[in-house]
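Recall that a protein's primary structure is simply its ordered list of amino acids. Everything else, from secondary elements to tertiary packing, is in principle encoded there. The following example makes that idea concrete.
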Amino acid sequence: MTVERKHYPHLDAPVGPYVHATKLNNLLFVSGLTAFNTPAQQGSMLQQAEVILKQLKGILDAEGVGFEHMAKVTIFVTELEGLPKIRELAIRYYGDFFPASSLVEVKNLFSPDLKIEIEAVVGLD
């Protein structure tokens, strides 16, 4: 069993000792994505979520799959107030293919202005 460590050129280099994703057999485990080092970093949770979902779409595109292959997402938020708008945004990206999902409220993310982080598990062909 080999774990393939993956980096994607459309994303900034990781800021810690991790990779953007790892591939094990037909599963892709995507590290937590944030709006760090983007214009949305200082923005609302919704603006940050939009950047993150675009980053995730770029990963899916690079792997030759779409959101219908996303099996599981875990969403970490620093506040629960903006969730209805986040759900509407997610539906636009997911279409009819909802993944299993967990939502966790956390006190902080690694940078004080970050409000949301999303990690995913994707099934590959």
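DSSP finds two helices and six strands in the chain. Residues 45-63 form the longest helix (19 residues).
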